[in-house]
Amino acid sequence: MALEGPAVLVVGAGISGATIARVLAEAGHEVLVVDSATHVGGHCHTERDPETGIMRHVHGPHIFHSDDEHVWHFVSRFAIFEPFEFAVDADVGGRLFHLPINLDTLRAFFGKDFTSAQAEAYVGERAIKLDHAPRNFEEQALSSIGPELYEAFFKGYTQKQWGRAPADIPAAVFRRLQLRFNEDRTYFHHARVGMPREGYTAMVGHMLDHPGIRVELGTPYRSDQDVGGFSHVFYTGPLDGYFDYQFGRLPYRSLRFENFRVDGDFQQTATVNYPDLDVPYTRITEHKKFAPWEHFERSICSREYSFECGAKDTPYYPVNLASGSSLLDRYRQAATDLEGVSFVGRLGTFRYLDMDVAIGEALKASRSFLERRNANEKVPAFFHA
Ligand code: FAD
Ligand code: UDP
Predict the structure, then answer these.
(1) Contact between 92 and 275 (Cβ < 8 Å)
(2) Boundaries of domain holding 37
(3) Ligand 1 test: best mutation among 33, 44, 271, most atoms within 8 Å of CB?
């Protein structure tokens, strides 16, 4: 891992690491990017299924959605984005309903031919009134949509996804999904939604394709190893992993995908969620539906199972708890006490970040790094508030 000169080391070739590497290389820095994986792209990794030729979202469905024009401008330099409409159904007791909950869902679920105003009033009557701000996922859900919708669409799914009671999960997780009193069924509320035509791995590959960037794959980084005088380290791996888990392990959920192939099509929408607790998986994804501009006779789908991440498993989702975490505070403090290392990205900051937010934060982190270097100021461990 020796490199001449005081290069910057970026640990992780996911979208956060690739964004930082690109901005710094364009500003004239030599950058070494290492990743323990044998491909770039991190959790957004896509590859063609050798049997069907379909672009598979290897670590789960990834749809690019953002209102941030700077982020769109940045990613559009490295990929052609196809406009995309993400539709999701929920299978509740064998019946399919549109998600997020919209007017069609409400009409079908309650068996009433509501107008928009009637549906809003009906849900409003069911919502449980609290005398305080919602403190967790369950309170947020019950006070927004009432018990019937919560139990059908959210309670079981959230228990399966997070392996914890919804009352232990932060209220903000529920607020990721909208409730709509119209027939709009697009999953995301952002103005623009798209898919990189050749997949995310190709996009990240283009980001890293710069004479100032060297990429070493299959190269795990350990903070106790001699990495040869880097002027700064940007670390996008798990925060507790940087410290070799010295205070204990932070909680993550891992995922397992069970792939199967069928002739023709398997389901109507790209993703079908299964909130019922007696179904062991959370959702089924049909990959070819993420590339509607391509045509295939066959289909590959993935059943997604969530489980608690052990020492040998891959961390997918940091588990933030409604009650906060003194262990996380301890790792954050340890990180803040270091010199010459900054923590960015989903695992590095232990937050659930969508891709556009991860890129937006990585852009800000790299610009802030360049400004501080020019002004001879200390570079912080964390750049987000
Ligand atoms: P990562 O992609 O995790 O990259 C970190 C990299 O660091 C990895 O490549 C890893 O191998 C490497 N690494 C870790 N430790 C070391 C080490 N010690 N040495 C060397 N390398 C190391 N976002 C959306 O916007 N839309 C979606 O639809 C969406 N769907 C998602 C679905 C799932 C199932 C999941 C889990 C996430 C989803 N996301 C989605 C979020 C998205 O995956 C993240 O925003 C994105 O992956 C963050 O990129 P990152 O570079 O911060 O982290
Ligand atoms: N959720 C749920 N039922 C669903 C879909 C989502 O209960 O059918 C909950 C679940 O807790 C999830 C959260 O809502 O973590 C946010 O959903 P989102 O689709 O944003 O999660 P993602 O798949 O992007 O992690």
Answers:
(1) yes
(2) 4-85+194-250+323-374
(3) 44
Ligand 1 neighbourhood includes 227 CB (under 6 angstroms)? no
Q: Is the beta carbon of 92 within 6 A of some atom in ligand 2? A: no
Q: Are residues 236 and 338 in the same domain?
A: yes
Question: Which tens digit of pLDDT belongs to each residue from 96-145?
Answer: 999 999 999 999 999 999 999 999 999 999 999 999 999 999 999 999 99
Catalytic residue among 77, 175, 176, 222: 176
Using the atom order of ligand 2, give the atom closest to the CA of residue 352. Answer: 25
Assign 228 a pLDDT band (cuts: 50, 70, 90).
Answer: low
Q: How many domains does the chain have?
A: 2
Q: Could you tell me the distance, in angstroms and rounded to a whole number, from the CA of residue 154 to the centre of ligand 2?
A: 8
In a shared domain, residues 241 and 106: no
User: How much of the chain exceeds pLDDT 90, in percent?
Assistant: 93
User: Phi and psi (nearest 5°) for 342?
Assistant: -120, 145
8/80 same-domain check: yes
Among all ligands shown, which has an atom nearest to the Cα of 170? 2
Task: Enumerate residues 6+ apart whose C-beta is below 8 A from 90.
Answer: 96, 97, 98, 99, 153, 272, 273, 274, 275
Residue 345 and residue 358 in contact, taking contact as beta carbons nearer than 8 Å: yes
pLDDT band at 6 (very low <50, low <70, confident <90, very high): low
Could you tell me if 121 and 237 lie in one domain? no
Residue 336 belongs to domain with CATH number: 3.40.50.720
Q: Lay out the sheet containing 88-92: strands in order across.
A: 95-99, 88-92, 271-273, 283-286, 298-308, 252-263, 317-318
**pLDDT at position 319, please?**
97
Q: Which protein residue has the closest C-alpha to ligand 1 atom 7?
A: 12
**Which atom, in ligand 2's list, is nearest to the CA of 156?**
7
pLDDT of residue 5: 46
Q: Which two tokens stand for residue 53?
A: 């030729």
Task: From 64, 144, 157, give the residue whose CB has the most ligand 2 atoms within 8 Å, as the site to mutate.
Answer: 157
pLDDT of the residue at 159:
98
Instruction: Let me know whether 200 and 333 are in one domain.
Output: yes
371 is catalytic: no
**pLDDT confidence bin for 291, thresholds 50/70/90:** very high
235 φψ region: left (φ > 0), alpha (ψ -120 to 50), beta (else): beta
